[in-house]
Amino acid sequence: MINKISLSSKSSMVKRILTGIVLMAVVIPCIAFGNWPFFVLSILLSVVGIHEILRAPGSGRYSLLVKIVVYLFVLSFIYWTFIKSWVGSDTPNPFTGSSEFALDNIFVSILGIVLYAMVLFLISVSTPKFQLSDATYLFTVGLFFALGFQGMLFLRYFPNSNGITYLTAISDTSVFVPWGQNVTCGNYFEQYYLSHGLNKTFNSCLVFIFMLLGTWGADVGAYFVGVLFGKHRMNPRISPHKTWEGFFGGFVFSMLCSLGFAAICEYAFDSPLVPGILQFQNSPLLLTMNTMNGVCWPFLVGIAFLMPIVGNVGGFTFSLIKRQFGIKDFGTIFPGHGGVIDRFDSILTNSIMIAIILLITANGWNLLV
Predict the structure, then answer these.
(1) How many CB atoms lie within 10 A of CB 8?
(2) Is the pLDDT of residue 69 over 90?
(3) CB of 106 within 8 A of CB of 355?
């Protein structure tokens, strides 16, 4: 039986749809162009997101010193490895305007993490109003937020890399492919795009769009199915509006959107999400790397399967934080959706998950990452 939709629910639904359309009109072009547009967008969103983290316990709770410390460390966790990969390496440096942005690794300094914790605990010891719970909250949420944004950067810029360079022993190894000659593991991505007449700047964004479709598809499917058919609450203590009916509806819609998009890209336009790494067809690159005997589709289907599940874990995690502080949303920048964290909570967790799978797959699953 279809649930009766109240006027407030209809108004909220319309607001969410309109905001979603405007958000996509801004975000999708930045994702498609990549390079500076996406980099600047990520900075703007991350700055707003850190503001929301600091604001959640109360707008006047933290001093200027605490805010400076959190901004400094969290932004450094997000962008240090990104900038470091350009400095003193063969990767094109965007600050010279030379070529594509590329990111072939994800990393957070252990020294930075320890220093961040020490500074927060030092402030907690020396400032009566800054309690231990404040230090642990800002440490854990700040670090998770940073990893999520670094994961997003990795997903967008990893396909811009020339190829597989982690396994130095095989980076110069020839890959026998039916579409070209003199292709090595170290230049596989670049040669695939060139030989198939694909625009590297645009086609390298496909895995990121795949992630968005799988994540937001789950949210959209869960919202509409939950509103229309939801009866059984998943976890009313944390998120009273999420239902099991909505979850399974979102799960199915997410799988259809993500796998359908991947299939169209690969079979209609000969452009897999990440050439040789994330595709349906067998990969000569993975075969050369002696990984899964060249079979790719389990990674692709597995990621599509995990996205609605992992995304829900992210949603519940940040909902738990909101319940802890007694707030409805982290922010108001997106009418009907809340703030940056409200809209990107599932994206943060899925970005981390997919980035890890891509990274260890590109590393031949020897787990030396």
Answers:
(1) 8
(2) yes
(3) yes
Tokens (6 digits) for 325 = 């502080």
At 233, give phi and psi (nearest 5°). -70, 140
Please provide the average confidence, as pLDDT, over all residues in the chain: 88
- pLDDT tops 90 at residue 64: yes
Within the chain, residue ranges assigned H as helices are 7-33, 35-55, 64-84, 110-126, 132-157, 188-195, 200-203, 206-229, 244-263, 269, 284-288, 297-325, 340-362
Q: Is the pLDDT of residue 16 over 80?
A: no
Integer CA distances (angstroms), 251 to 129, 199, 336, 345, in order = 44, 32, 22, 17
- Residue 334 pairs in a beta bridge with 338
Site of tokens 């949603």: 315
Mean pLDDT of 337-346: 89
Strand-pairing partners, residue 184, are 174
Q: How far is it, in rounded angstroms, from Cα 294 to Cα 281?
A: 9
Output 136 or 23, whichever has higher pLDDT: 136
- Amino acid code (one letter) for 368: L
